Structure formats: structure tokens, C-alpha cells
Amino acid sequence: MKVLIVEDNPELCKNLEEIFSRNGFIVDTARDGERALDLLFSSEYDLVILDIMLPKMSGWDVCLNARKAKLRVPILMLTAKDAVSDRIKGLDIGADDYLVKPFDIGELLARSRTLIRRNSWTKSNIIEIKNIKIDTLGKTVCVDDKEVKLSKKEYDILLYLATNQGKIVERTEIIDHVWETGFEMYSNVVDVYVNYIREKLKKHGVDDLIETIRGIGYRIRG
Fold first, then answer.
1. Is 2 helix (H, G, I), strand (E, B) or coil?
2. Phi-psi region of 79 (alpha: psi -120 to 50; beta: other; left: phi over 0)
3. pLDDT (tens digit, 9 = 90+) per residue, 28-44?
């Protein structure tokens, strides 16, 4: 796996390079936005770790230009800008995740692995689990080529679980990913929607896809 780290702080850039190298990544680094964009256009990466406040070109502009060029590489913005409006902006312009400094190394690596895994599964726009196909472009779910009619929330929850296949996903993670910020939730809303999904899949002969991890959340096994 190959990662591009874009960070103008020399010490932090070196630390990140060492962390990712120790965890099996091939690492390229860039200290300014223009160099980052040059590397993105000339090499293929599995992940970009991108600071926002950079010389020559901001991380915002690096991300925008990458997406305008149809580059599908996952981008994780790693920045000290912690305002909610900054996080929203980052995600809206095409970043896949946003982590605020200071950060936990374990969390950074876990998020990185998730983004890489998710991207590898969705390159063809189809996620296949057993006899189930999830079309991320058409936003459809089929069992043995027969469509399962899901609501938008049901589809979003199933897709999030599928892109984290094998991982235990906490209920709070699902809420943060699927529902809008500030939306008032009742305590078992995720359980209710998961049950809806299970009932609809069961009608198509699938009754063991989503595993309940008691007291934590859910998991889809391969």
C-alpha cells in the first residue's frame, strides 16, 4: 500500500512517515500543496494524508483539484482546524475523512485502513457479500439479482456496515455517519432500522448477514 503524506511541519511529517513505514506502507511526502498535486498526478496512491494550511497551495485546493481531475484516491484531512464548519467544508469538497490534531496514532491508522479497504471494495461500484450485491452508483441492493427495496436510511446503514465488513461498528458511528448533525435521536433508532433491513433481507432468504454485538453495535461477516 502506498500513501502520500502532505505536511509542512518537518518534525510531524517525519513522524508520520516513520509511523506508516513501520506499519507496512510505502510512503511519499510533500511539504507544500503544489508538490502534492504534482505527485498525485504522476503516481498512484492508496491514500493521501492531507494537511490544510500548506505553502503555495492549501489543502482545500489540493483536494478540489484532485477531485476535479476525477482522482478517486481516498483523502484523509489531518489538521488543527477543528471548527465544525471546517470539517463540513472538507467533506463537501471531496475529502473522505477528517481528523483533528492532536490525534491518536491508533485511530489514524484505523481510519486509514478503513478508507483503503472501502476504496478497494467500491472501485467497481459493486460490493459483493455472499449472494448480495450493493451497487453504490445505482444505490440498489440485490439478492440473487432480485432487488431488495430499502429506504434511503436503510440503504445507507447497510452500505456503511458493508464498507466496514468484518469490523464491529458501534451504534454511535452509524448515527454519526447516517443522520444529520443535531438530529434528535431516540435511544434504539439504529436497532429499529437494522431490524427493518433484516426483515427485508429475510424475505429474500438472507437471515444471517448482520451480526449483533451485544452492548456495542453490529458487524457484517464475509
1. strand
2. beta
3. 999 999 999 999 988 88
